[in-house]
Specification:
By secondary structure, the chain is α+β, with helices and mostly antiparallel strands. Helix content is 64%, strand content 8%. The protein has 13 helices and 5 strands. Strands 1, 2, 3, 4 and 5 form a 5-stranded antiparallel beta sheet that branches. Strand 3 and strand 4 form a beta hairpin. Helix 2 packs parallel to helix 4. The chain is elongated, with a radius of gyration of 29 Å. It starts with a helix and ends with a helix.
Length: 323
């Protein structure tokens, strides 16, 4: 597992891949895949390697039996995470690609490390595999379950269909929940802090609107930007809207000063303008503690207003959308 993580981080460094909020799950998920694969090999090796004098043959049989299912487990996992590459949210897309590569790295690590590690451990410690405590009862229980299903196939099928029908009926009662604060107890400090911010200081959610900047920062463009911000402030759930025009109005910048800022933007301007991509950002603070339908309607309204004003290349993004 550690080797897979090291290779994954090396690949991320080589290809300049950066992780965000979603990357926190990477280590845990790779650990799950790696540990289960290692257990699969270890259990199979113990079953076939009781003869201490023929360890190599037992290891060969173990790998012949275990590598195909491990490969397909890693490959299908990689395909599943790779499907996230179609996401329009960049952190989700990068997370999917990293997880897909890391899943394949687990199989590579199994091939390169486990055979030598097994032979080395067997040679150093001379450990003879023995049944563990409770294993006999577990095997008997599993054998009974398989035998019961074989003897009562119709009954088992009927009960399975009944359970599926009950669960299937419940699917129509499911709803998507995006308010992550509901993961915490009413008495938790995180929830209390969020409520304080939302009630006293405005919305805690952050939405970014990215628009193409014109080649010439003229008065007509800034008038459109001001009008767009007024329409955004009128949306229910939007607390504050800020862009570069607010800073320019605050300092009462002249046309000459505006052109200088555009050609050599200071750090304050770079918060809203990216000279490399020639794109501007509008920052919105919105209410975080809303229903899923309310959030979807809010984001849809933001997207419609900004695209009607600045064209179809406008993108609505940010942590609020990601969550």
């Amino acid at each position: 597992v550690q080797t897979s993580l090291i290779w994954m981080r090396a690949m991320m460094y080589f290809f300049e891949v950066q992780l965000s909020l979603t990357g926190a799950m990477t280590t845990a998920m790779i650990t799950v895949i790696g540990i289960t694969s290692a257990i699969h090999v270890a259990v199979r090796f113990r079953e076939v390697a009781f003869d201490e004098n023929d360890v190599v043959a037992g290891l060969r049989e173990t790998l012949t039996h275990s590598l195909p299912p491990i490969f397909w487990a890693c490959a299908t996992t990689a395909v599943g995470f790779g499907a996230l590459a179609v996401s329009q949210v960049a952190p989700v897309r990068s997370f999917g690609l990293v997880m897909a590569a890391a899943s394949l790295m687990v199989f590579v690590a199994i091939i390169l490390i486990m055979p030598g590690a097994i032979l080395l451990a067997r040679g150093l410690f001379r450990v003879v595999p023995r049944p563990t405590i409770g294993e006999t009862h577990l095997a008997e229980g599993l054998h009974w379950a398989v035998s019961f299903v074989g003897r009562h196939a119709r009954f088992t099928t009927a009960m399975t269909m009944l359970v599926l029908a009950i669960c299937g009926a419940g699917l129509f009662r499911l709803d998507v929940e995006t308010d992550f604060t509901k993961n915490f107890k009413e008495s938790s400090s995180i929830l209390q802090d969020y409520r304080f911010v939302e009630g006293k200081l405005g919305g805690a959610g952050l939405v970014d609107v990215v628009i193409d900047a014109p080649t010439d920062w003229n008065a007509e463009f800034f008038d459109r930007l001001r009008k767009c911000q007024q329409e955004l402030r009128a949306i229910e759930g939007v607390v504050k809207v800020t862009s570069i025009v607010d800073m320019l109005d605050l300092i009462k910048a002249s046309n000459l000063m505006i052109n200088v800022m555009r050609s050599a933007p200071p750090p304050e301007v770079r918060q809203f303008f990216n000279p490399k991509t020639n794109r501007l950002r509008i920052l919105l603070r919105v209410k975080e503690q809303q229903t899923t339908d309310g959030k979807a309607k809010l984001l849809s309204s933001i997207e419609q207003i900004t695209r009607d004003t600045f064209g179809p290349t406008t993108k609505v993004t940010g942590l609020y959308l990601l969550l």
